[in-house]
Design brief:
Blueprint: E1 12-16, H1 21-32, E2 36-41, H2 44-56, E3 62-65, H3 71-84, E4 90-93, H4 108-136, E5 139-144, H5 157-177, E6 182-189, H6 198-201, H7 211-219, H8 232-239, E7 250-253
Parallel strand pairs: 1-2, 1-4, 2-3, 4-5, 5-6, 6-7
Bound molecules: NADP nicotinamide-adenine-dinucleotide phosphate and D-gluconic acid (GCO).
């Protein structure tokens, strides 16, 4: 049956940074398609809250405290998953941060921290799971890119550099490991209502919408912010056999922002 191609029954999916936000929604989607969910974050309280939230949704998700920038922690986490749950069939590199600072005011250490989490960590995570995927004869790696994989804007130099690099890392993993039936693609959310973008949507003291909120609605043909749920269908597609001949692609889930000059205000 054609729709069987979208089934993830019997698959193990590791979603980084999936305590809340986009990662949590994508993990729910992968679970609903049949995958066994494993996730990580850095904060013990977030981990406990997430475990509870998954259980409330009937999802038996296994959580790990693991900083994705620390290769020894990542190797230990992946080794434990492989031993206790199974080989990671699907890796979603979702964990990420942003720092919004004018570039000439940004400290080099702040720039490095963003690149470390948003670009180096996906490299570390992919390096940890690919050997077993090669032995198993298949694998899916999905890197969470961004509008900033294509566009710049004021104050997000480190994030744009990292997410632009992540697009090219995606293509390179596809190029280097496609021969082992491993597909590596990006998913590029537009502007999504999560804690990460909360400062851009904060209602002003006079009760008016944040200027950036109005700006994004004017730049989006869908005339709305995305929600994490908008990523659920696309991530199932990229994680499933339905995308076995899609490799090195970034699937933008942006309501049309990248196709649109923006509404004349
Ligand atoms: P978020 O709400 O800030 O959540 C980020 C997640 O990443 C949290 O679970 C956080 O866990 C985890 N994390 C951060 N650094 C980590 C580290 N070093 N090790 C392990 N976990 C770490 O972000 P979001 O909006 O859901 O975004 C998720 C991804 O989508 C990010 O890569 C972001 O760049 C990307 N994205 C977001 C948007 C958007 O509009 N929201 C659009 C395009 C792309 P802790 O809290 O425990 O640190
Ligand atoms: C920003 C936003 C964006 C979004 C996202 C867009 O400050 O411009 O945080 O970077 O998070 O990456 O795709």
């Amino acid at each position: 049956m054609m729709m069987d191609q979208f089934s993830l029954q019997g698959k193990v999916a590791l979603v980084t940074g999936a305590a809340y936000g986009i990662g949590f929604a994508m993990a729910q989607a992968l679970s609903q398609a049949g995958a066994r969910i494993v996730f990580n974050c850095r904060n013990e309280e977030h981990l406990e809250q997430a475990q509870k939230a998954y259980q409330e949704r009937g999802i038996d998700a296994r959580g790990f405290l693991c900083d994705v920038t620390e290769e020894d922690q990542v190797q230990h986490m992946v080794g434990t998953i492989e031993k206790e749950i199974g080989i990671v069939d699907i890796l979603v590199n979702n964990a990420g941060i942003i720092k919004r600072i004018p570039m000439i005011q940004m400290k080099a250490e702040e720039f490095r921290q963003v690149v470390d989490i948003d670009l180096t960590a996906p490299f570390i995570m992919a390096k940890a799971v690919i050997p077993a995927m090669m032995r198993k004869g298949h694998g899916k790696i999905i890197n969470v890119c961004s509008m900033m994989s294509e566009l710049g804007r004021e104050t997000v130099s480190a994030y744009a550099a990292a997410k632009g690099g992540l697009k090219m890392l995606t293509k390179n993993i596809a190029a280097e490991y496609g021969v082992y039936n491993i597909q590596c693609n990006g998913i590029g959310p537009g502007y999504i209502a999560t804690p990460q973008t909360a400062p851009l949507r904060a209602v002003q003291q006079d009760g008016t919408p944040h200027p950036f909120d109005r700006f994004i609605i004017g730049r989006t043909p869908a005339a709305r912010w995305g929600t994490p749920d908008d990523l659920m269908g696309p991530v199932i597609f990229l994680a499933s056999d339905a995308s076995n001949f899609v490799n090195g692609h970034v699937l933008y889930v942006d309501g049309g922002i990248l196709a649109y000059l923006g509404k004349q205000s």
